[in-house]
Amino acid sequence: MPSPLSGNNLTLWKLDSGLGIVPFAAARNCTLNVNLGLKEVTNYSSGNWQEYKEDVMNWTITNEGLVFNSSYSYVLLMRDQKTRAKYYFQFIVDEGAGGFYVVSGYAFITNISIAGPQKDVAVVNCTLQGTGSYTITSTPISSSTMTQTTAYTAPSDGLTTFNVPALVNCAACLYVSRGGIDVGNILTAGTPSGNDVTVDVITGNVTVSSTMPTTAGEFFRFLYR
Amino acid sequence: MSVYLRHYTTQAQAKSGKLYTCDIYENGYVGSVVNIPAGNRPFEQNVLASSDDAFDPILASELRANLDITDATDIPDLTTTNDRKYWGKLYAQDYPLADTSTISWKLYETSSPAFLDVNLEIWVNGVLTVSEFSNNTGSLTVNAGDTILIKNVDLISTTNPAGSGWRLRIEQNGGSIYSGSNTSSGIGIKVSYTFVAGNQSNYGVLAESYQTGDDSQTVPQFPTYEIFQGYLLMDSARLSFSTGRKFLDISIIDGLGMLKSILYQDNYLSATPTPQNGAVMVDINTTETLLQVCLNCLNKLVLPNGFKLNIACNIYADLMVTTSDPFSQILYYMRNWQNADTTFFDCYTILQTIVKSFGCQLFQANNEYWIANVNERCADLRYFKYDQTGALVSSGTYSPNRTIKPYDGTAPHYFVNNSQAKVIRKGYPVIDITSEYKYAPNLLDNGNLKRPAAISATEVYYNWEKIFPMPGTSVINTNNYDGYNWVHMDLSTSTSIHSGPTSIAPVSSQDILTLSFLLAGRATPSSTIPTVIMSVKLTSPNGTDIYYLDNTNGRTSLDGTIEWLHTTVGCKYVIGSTTSDYEQISFQMPPCPIDGTLEIRFILTSSTAIYSSPTLTNCEYANVVLSATNQYQTRDTKAYNTLITQYKKQITNSFGYCPLATNSLSGAMLRTGTYATYPLVWTNWYRYGVTEAYATLPRLVIQQYVNCLTSAQINMEGDLMSLFGDNDASVYSLFTLIDTLKFQDTTGLLNVSGKYYIFGNCRINYTDDEFSGTFLNVSGTDITETITDIDILKSK
Known about the structure:
The complex is a heterodimer. By secondary structure, chain A is mostly beta strands.
């Protein structure tokens, strides 16, 4: 029986001119809408039914309740919209052992709403309008910064440090998941705790918290550039 | 003349997968090409039918182009008054889908003077995909990023003759990326090339063997579909005046409407026209074929790349050659295109007159002009294609029929938007073609004497000769005053002098001629009443029968009635009535007794032995007009199934109504070739492939009107797709105005299956791959009705 996919497994990334591929933000709701337009071709032989043929397609991404991370903020979002330019986005679906599916394409930031209700948390929503076709790959692709993915399967229980050669001398590790679930913070040095991990880009060593060592066969996914 | 160079280009991809390009060329432009992005619905063609009449003679079109000029610093000059500053053309090309490229290949083995083997291999990502051993062409689609290896291979032992070898040429989007050759004989790879396929690129590959005497091949080009050409009309350009994205809407017209303001001939003696100028610089009594007239009119547009004209009208007269088009076999006098003030008709009126008289339509389709008979479009079209010089380019048949079917995923053309409807138009129980019995306003060339003499020794003005039968000191020369050019005749010591026109139209029996001119007696004594003797001689075509116009009772008195004398020499005394400067003289002749040619002379003589007194010493005359009328006013050709009705279709026609040998009428279409003995007219008209013949052209044309308009017409309206024949590789050429539609209909209500339709008012949206509008029902099947001719007499 197929398992439902958790919303945590859907992430949105943006290609930033200075920061490279960055997680766009976390959102309470992030929705990718893909629409196929139709052209009516009803005729005398349609037998009282409307008939259609395929026409053009479009896609949008709506985000509600954005929570920005250290890489991006609502200020940067508004700045980007003001340029009236299109940006490269990736909508990544992490299916764990099933792999990544990456929906990539260019989109305009068409709508930003910032609400500051009294006695409640400020809410930032935004809408992205895709332009042109999107591509779907099982490997994250970047238009210019060569973001890549690599995987690691823990060979045994109890490991707290293991080596991932692909991460050696990478510019940055952008994302890590364990068993299809996001890790916490990605540290570049020091000892991790809880759900955090430390990635040493010089040696390629990955360290997990001693309280959460690996289990045999545990699947790690890394996004890096 | 300046050269037109490409200044702007705009491209847009269509839903059909084709890439449409509009190039705008500028007269005298020097510089690089400016790319302007396409705007919204960038390329739409509006077909401007003036009504829902299938016989509307001229179907003009305009192409509306919408350009995004937000970031443009260089756009066409919108304020220019030069109608021909910018020439635009629209064409489409096959365009690969996203993430693919197309390779069009050709293998050619030369065989002249000797055979030289070559073979082609195309490898895609290490897999042999194309392997050809003999002359062939083809294409394949590859993915962007594929590694392509192309080999030009010789698999048999061949000794190549001197001057021969093997060659591989590869182009990407029309530009060469590789050209290699090898002249070494022997088995093996001769030349090869590897490349990585780009994204949405069109590659052309020619793998060939070549030799001296056969180096004929070119790299295959991806198909290009020429669609439209014309001039930018700045009169209706529209430009956003706000912030945000800015769009420019421009109109490119096919030129047919421009012809309304272009005269067939210009009446100017010099390059700088003045009100006093009015010289007609052609002999109006010369003939041209109707084909030449059509080409002359279209050549007035001065299209930079020339044009093609297809004659798809297969109406012939008895004795015409059917291996050529009819227009090239019909001669027509240039004088018939003149107005009374000697100016010429505009070219639009001339084309309309010709086209309408044959039941045809003139329009632009596929970047070419077509004159196509309405009835003939229900079957394969015979056409003769000419270029702008009149050279025959090709001839053949074209199958115009396209069937509109319900959309089922395979139909090439289908209705969309659920807007389709049948529109009924009541038929006409009576159809009436009226042809006027009229003549050119002047049957004499250079009647206003504005065109100067070409040979001064024998001419006083162009086509006006001066004759001095008796020696002496007489004078025949020119004079100019009061805006007129005059012939001045002074007898002096000579016995007699003559002058007169040398280019006069032949006349027909029963033509009623009127000669009018200004007459002055300017020389001393100034109070002389102007007087001159006219000799008007009518000679039969074989020269044996001669008639003289006479009002002197055979030269015995001065007050006789005007009559034609048979054989006996007579003359027409003209005596003025005032001593004022000059006066208008005009006299009508009795109906011409025979067909024939005229000789007209103005005579001064002192010989009382030849003509009666008084002695005539000098005169001046100007502005000579020989006009003609007929006892009949019109010929009405009528087709009817009942006369008791208020619904009558009235059509005016200009050609081919004349009775046999009535060649002076403006409707006379004259014979050419071996049948052009005396200028006789073509008669007994028929449609190619149909036995029945009609005595006059209006009778044949009215039959065509009957076929289409007598019964109620079930026209169609709606939106249709697709222009390139969606889903059907065999229907792959662009749907254009020359095509005829048929509609699949299995309903029982006003079923239209088997009916044919041509374009009426419509709009073609090239990028949305849609065309919408009205489609007019036509038919080529004869319906029997009573057809009569009635000649209406002039009221007295």
